[in-house]
């Protein structure tokens, strides 16, 4: 499983997203699984990856929170949570998305 955390420069959620991802991987029994942090630093890179905003959690090339039809843009991403819009998903949502993806591998 190849896991990436994609962010734009100066993303306000990058550090929190990295910690959240590590915690979720550990929690579902993938403590030995690493991930890379990729920087999306141009509109061309964003379009090429169909980047739906920063931060994005990507496993084997698939965005865990897929935004269908996203043309790709250098933008901050908004995740809907019970506490309103946030720049990272909730821990349970990320955990569930990772478990679903791990089950298909």
Note down, in words, how this protein is organized.
With 105 residues, the chain is α+β, with helices and mostly antiparallel strands. Helix content is 33%, strand content 20%. Strand 5 (79-81) and strand 6 (84-86) form a beta hairpin. The longest helix is centred in the first third of the chain and has 14 residues, at 14-27. It starts with a strand and ends with a helix. 27% of the residues are buried.
Overall 3D geometry?
Answer: globular
Largest beta-sheet details: 4 strands, mixed
User: What percentage of the residues does DSSP assign to strands (E)?
Assistant: 15-25%
Contiguous low-pLDDT stretches (5 residues minimum) are none
Helical run tally: 3
- The main sheet orders its strands as 2-1-3-4
Summarize the amount of helix as a percent range: 25-40%
The arrangement of helices and strands along the chain is EHEHEEEEH
Structural class: alpha+beta
Q: Using DSSP, what is the number of strands? A: 6
- Provide the gyration radius in Å: 13 Å
In short:
This protein has 105 residues and is α+β, with helices and mostly antiparallel strands. It is built from 3 helices and 6 strands; from the N terminus they run βαβαββββα.
Descriptive tags:
single chain, 105 residues, alpha+beta, four-stranded mixed beta sheet, two-stranded antiparallel sheet, 3 helices
Reconstruct the topology from this structure.
Elements: E1 3-7, H1 14-27, E2 36-39, H2 43-49, E3 56-59, E4 62-63, E5 79-81, E6 84-86, H3 91-104
Parallel strand pairs: 1-2
Antiparallel strand pairs: 1-3, 3-4, 5-6
Helix pairs in contact: 1-3
């Amino acid at each position: 499983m190849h896991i990436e955390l994609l962010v734009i420069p100066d993303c306000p959620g990058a550090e929190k997203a990295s910690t959240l991802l590590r915690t979720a991987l550990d929690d579902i029994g993938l403590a030995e699984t690493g991930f890379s942090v990729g920087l999306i630093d141009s509109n061309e890179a964003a379009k090429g990856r169909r980047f739906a905003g920063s931060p994005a959690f990507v496993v084997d090339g698939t965005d865990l929170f897929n935004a269908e039809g996203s043309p790709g843009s250098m933008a901050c991403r908004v995740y809907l949570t019970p506490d309103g819009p946030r720049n990272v998903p909730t821990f349970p949502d990320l955990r569930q998305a990772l478990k679903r993806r791990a089950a298909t591998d």
